[in-house]
Amino acid sequence: MSELPIEIKSTAGRRLRQGHLWVYANELVTPPGRLGLAAGAQVSLSCAGKSVGRGYFNPNSLIAVRVLDRQIDAVLDEDWLERRLQQALDLRQGLADPTHARLVHGEADGLPGLILDRFDQLLVAQSGTAGMDAMRPALEAILRRRFPRSTLLWRNIGPARRAEGLQEAVEVAWGELAELHPVVEHGYRFWFSPRAGQKTGWFYDQRD
């Protein structure tokens, strides 16, 4: 946790109170480059002296801070991350087939910068931010415990990473990955390329 909260302007404070999760670089009272914080650093935020939440910081991005928790004393560690992941999984319990589904959808699940898709025993993750890159070891530890027979593929590519000043890479964290992998949609089986497909390889976000 930073020694002192980062002060944000009143316009950003109003948006955060309305549920928005981003603070832009020009909405910080002190310019990002003068804060002396590394990309991915966890920070506390205040507006007019009042605490408004905690998130992670990137001085290289137009979106300087992405809020993770409204509690100023929240500890954004592995336990916090596992609780947030469990909330996302609980929301999907009513799906017809939760073994083939998007498990985490970024800000919608309170995890800005993270996409996590499940294709039975294949997990495909995408980190689009420096802050989520910093959380990767904790996330991998959680996924290993919860899905011990899985393969985890990171597809960290795309314009979001370039906007954050991050390198792009496609890599297997663990497990065996075939060139083609099956996915089930409404009882029908299709095949896709986890490494070469777009985004995470399948468009779960466009399901009917």
Using DSSP, what is the number of strands? Answer: 12
Anisotropy-based shape: elongated
N/C terminus separation: 42 Å
CATH superfamily of the largest domain: RNA methyltransferase domain (HRMD) like
Helix coverage percent of residues?
A: 10-25%
Q: What Rg do the Cα atoms give?
A: 18 Å
Can you characterise this structure?
This protein is of the alpha+beta class. The protein has two domains: 6-69, PUA domain (Archaeosine Trna-guanine Transglycosylase, Chain: A, domain 4, Roll); 78-206, Transcription Regulator spoIIAA (2-Layer Sandwich). It has four helices and twelve strands; from the N terminus they run βαββββαβββαβαβββ. The protein has helices spanning 10-17, 78-91, 130-146, 159-163, and strands at residues 6-7, 22-24, 42-47, 50-57, 63-69, 100-105, 114-119, 122-127, 151-156, 169-174, 181-185, 188-192. The strands form three sheets. A five-stranded mixed β-sheet has the order 1-3-4-5-2. It is elongated, with a radius of gyration of 18 Å.
